[in-house]
Amino acid sequence: MSAPIVTGLMAYGMSGRIFHAPFLSTNPQFKLKAVVERNQKKMAAHYPDIVSYGSVEELLNDSELELIIVNTPNFTHFDFAKQVLRSGKHVLIEKPAAGNAAEIKELYDVARENGRKAMVYQNRRWDSDFLSVKQVIESGRLGRLAEVNFRYDRFKPELSPKPFKETKDTPINGIVYELCPHLIDQVIHLFGKPLSFNKFTAIQRDNSEVADYVNFRLVYPAGLVVNLSSGLLIADPVPAFVVHGTVGSYSKHRVDVQEAQLDKGMLPTDDAYGVEPPASEGKLVTVGPGGEKSIEFVPSIKGDYNNLFYAVYHAIRNNTLYPITEEHMTWQMELLEA
Prior knowledge:
By secondary structure, this protein is of the alpha/beta class. It folds into two domains: 5-122 and 307-324, Rossmann fold (3-Layer(aba) Sandwich); 128-302, 2-Layer Sandwich (Dihydrodipicolinate Reductase, domain 2), CATH 3.30.360.10. The chain has ten helices and 14 strands. A hairpin with a 2-residue loop joins strand 11 (241-245) and strand 12. Helix 3 (77-86) runs parallel beside helix 4 (101-113), helix 4 (101-113) packs antiparallel against helix 10 and helix 7 packs across helix 10. The radius of gyration is 21 Å and the shape is globular.
């Protein structure tokens, strides 16, 4: 096996602690070396060998680092990612990677100019619930698809304590850029670019300045309609995945456990990691030629964000195509910025 990819984090907040460090530290294809911690030095308590820099500049000047993960606030992603690429390092950028399609093109252009990889972190492609929906769709058991409904809801009536998340003066904010990149990426992964789309946003929480509800209606060939919705005032979520076809329907709640497990300290190497709890199965209803209905509860596939990091490794070491492509990101940004 080739040498592990020496990697640095730009921050050790929630995403660094949950979504990156546990994978980089347990996957032999990576060596987690450094982090930027401007104030409190927290990471060493869990990773005693970590090098903690006080600035992004120090991280970029570390000649041993090959890959840097940009996991800072949304509005900084684009500029920091360009800095990483121009320093001669590969970059993995948390969503949203940029604010619009023009910036996405610039990012990939800078990557090509410097002979490096620009990759976007879209981990929800490897959620157990989404993988299960994908499996049912691709099995053909629903027939020709007619309507697809994906939701990503939360109940958070209070405003975020982080001011940059709640002010209209900060670019790339609100639920459109927080949760919709997950939904849009999943749909693009399944169906590609829509023929057309409509977008509606609203401000529903008291004293909010930024959109906290959004709905997309995407139209695909053969009359397929895809509805995407996300809101922050959903106390009793309905199934997050509902798919209707010519011979059946499938529904499933959003129950992927990886984030909760990682937050509690479970490592990705644990046998229980990514395994949904009992009674989380999706419901498949099919209709026979005589009109008789058959109901089946479909066990879920194990979720595993390791697969994203495997893809990063092979893109860098073997020059394979990273699955979240420039084309995918351009289409995503066209919807987000509309």
